[in-house]
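Example record

The entry below shows one chain as it appears in the dataset: sequence first, then structure tokens.
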Amino acid sequence: MTSDTPEVGAEAVQRQRMEADIICVGFGPATAGFLTTLSKQLLNPDGTPAVESAVMPGAPPQILCYERADDIGFGVSGIVTRARGLRASFPNLDPKDIPMAAPVAEEKVVYLLDPIGASRRSWALRGADACLRAFSGLLPLKHEAVELPWSPAFLHKTGGLVLSMGQFLQWVGAQVQSTGTVQIWPGTPISEALVEDHKVTGVRLLDQGVDKQGKPGDGFMPGMDIHAALTVIGDGPTGSIGQQLDAQLGLPEDHHARDWAVGMKFVVDLPADCALKPGTVLHTFGFPEPEIFGFLYVHPDRVASLGIFVPSWFDSPMRTAYRYLQHWMLHPYLWRHLKGSKLRSWGAKTLGESGRRGEPQLVGDGYARVGEGSGTTNVLTGSGVDEAWTTGVQLAESVLELLKGKKPFTRQNLEETYVRRRRASWVEAEARVAEHSRDGFQKGVVRGMIGMALAGLTKGRLSLRGEPLPPYKRIPTLEEYFRGRVSAAEIQQLRKECAIKGVSLHGVLMQRCGWPAIPYDGQLLVSHQDALLLGGKVQAPSGYADHVVFLYPELCERCGTKICIELCSGQAISPGSAGVPAFDREKCVHCGACYWNCAQPLPANPERMNIAFRAGTGGLHSAEN
């Protein structure tokens, strides 16, 4: 079938049309939980449909899942999880069946002192560091670090798993597709949801054969319209379909998405003499900057995932991730384990850290939202995969209930089934405990740590409050941030020199402030560009429009910070002409950090920034991340 759909600013384009029963947007842990649960109950033991398709009578429901990345599991992250929801879906789960999986064996929380003297520490932290060093003979201070003798229970992952999400999702995807009831289509980004009178009726696939601005060229193939009774949206915290619905339908009252982080990670081969055992979990704080948290998870066969989280409340216009990651690895506490390691793969991902406060409209006529983009991340326990998976399971149980009852997927029916299940679950109970747990970080690291402890130990009854602010209200100018360390005149000169070279500014400014050059070894410590080639394996097929767009060039021209350039995980955004950054999608890893780091609000909606992060193809080509 075909449909004539008016295009904005263009003549009507004739599009192919296809009918399905259920469409899924994205194949992350939430959608994987949804399809795992649903696919097991669509057929009777004799092979006949347990419920019947509305578009193909006599057959089970026609279920299609479209994934943006070029294969299942590309570009997602290594994690540690309590695995409650995963074990409920797989009661006989044996970690040995999943590549790179290991049961949690040991957990440590480690405070890292600054061995360089270059980080920006408050007087309170400087005083604490001085005391630790002064009484090092009486305290467990070794390798410029302190392993905390006790950590609260809410941080523990006892009984959980260390996983590569890429490997896990490939394992799940193979099982789901083997049922014959689900089709998963990787490398197929969705351009937009089809909305008619506030009802989602399906999705439109991305146009092919267009230039970088989206104008049709030779071989133009309009994206197909796929219509379905239910669209399941699990496209993550910066997914284009989630963004579209938030813009069109709005968030619930007092909800907002202002807390974020970018996680950057290496997967490495540890040296033969490394003493770390599989299942070891290390979490660090204090270095390279007090606001930056680190992690190291050990998989079987001397493989480890390690990296840092750079949060939105790190109020630096130079909040790069890659350079800080290298300094973190070189900390004496970590380097004694990592020296001699070799890079296997590398990646980055945005984390939506608003938690329940960032929860959107969970359901509406014809759609439901699951996973991280629906506000499942628990910022107190530092977990999200198990929560995301569980919301997918809850939706699947609700869909089966409605299908068997022959009820339509209306807002009311989805509220009475899916939302009811979610509100009655441990996901909701723990989200309420965590809701304000990190608010204290809005006013400082020490205050934030105390606030987290209060919220965790009192089950959310007590916390230290602070209002999360969008970037344009909190990020200082370069001159303000470096006042007393680098003069305004020198900053201006360095800015000009970097613009001529087409490189970001953070490297020279960090070096100017005392951060030493990275001693590249060609194995683990490599340049940013080498990481793209060796560890990221980034690819971007031609014939698609750019997915990162600077909406109003005049806003870019007057922006003095250009955090989008400094934080870009793949150096895909660089200084451009007339003050407008240039974008190279062949370097983009689709982390989405530019979307929430832009410090230029739109005049009509200050909650939206000047960078549009749209549907796009390509990115990382590694399933280890």
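Notes for this example: The chain has 19 helices and 30 strands. Residues 49 and 57 are 10 Å apart (CA to CA).
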